[in-house]
Amino acid sequence: MNRIDRALVVDDLAGSRDWLSCALEQAFPGIVVASAATLAGASLHLDPAPPLALIDLGLPDGSGLRLIERLHLLGTLCIVATVFDDDAHLFPALHAGAGGYVLKDQSTGHLADMLSGIAAGQPPLSPSIARRLLRHFQPALPVGGEAALTARETDVLRLIAKGHTVAEVAGLLGLSRHTAAGYVKDVYRKLSVGSRAEATLEATRRGLVG
């Protein structure tokens, strides 16, 4: 890609904007960094479009996905910077055109190292995100003829079978309600069940609940 001499940081938290800007300055000495806290604010920095943008997904005036889609068409390399490490956020971001996905759980130096790899064509990916991508494209191996569930799906099935609501499942597993609902839908689809009662029977048969 072209030389990275400008970047846009979009995050509603001032501390996160400072952290991302600092990492960019370490990775690309002399870079000019613009920042915005909203989609509306970001739109003021798109003419010309920056070569690189670090974008949070949850913004006060909408989803960062909208900005990623727009910038991707303009040739900007968009990197998601977020706290969300689940499939429900990761894959929509990649489909929107994100070229990297980093979590806000690392040091400035570590993030700068990942960003530095862009020049060599290395997509910035947090290790847990890279592992999630690998697992996603590995075929599930059924055991004993049963539909295979991931570890997280098994946890969701166990909690649903114990009578927990989707909101309670989300709280117990540290997920958003939307993400928990997505896991429940995937579990029902894999098990070919259509109700909590059927899911509970399947969980009992698998020995997940007494």
Automatic annotation (TrEMBL):
Residues annotated as domain Response regulatory = 6-119
Task: Write out the GO MF terms.
Answer: DNA binding
Q: Which domain of life is it from?
A: Bacteria
Kindly indicate whether the keyword NADP belongs to this entry. no
* Alphabetical keyword list: DNA-binding, Phosphoprotein, Transcription, Transcription regulation
Which parts of the chain are coiled coil? none
Q: Does the keyword Transcription apply?
A: yes
Give start and end of each HTH luxR-type domain.
142-207
Which SMART domains does the entry mention?
A: HTH_LUXR, REC
Q: Modified residue 4-aspartylphosphate is at which positions?
A: D56
Q: Which GO terms describe its biological process?
A: phosphorelay signal transduction system; regulation of DNA-templated transcription
- Signal sequence: where? none
Q: What is this protein called?
A: Two component transcriptional regulator, LuxR family
- Origin organism is Dokdonella immobilis
Q: What is the lineage of its organism?
A: Bacteria, Pseudomonadati, Pseudomonadota, Gammaproteobacteria, Lysobacterales
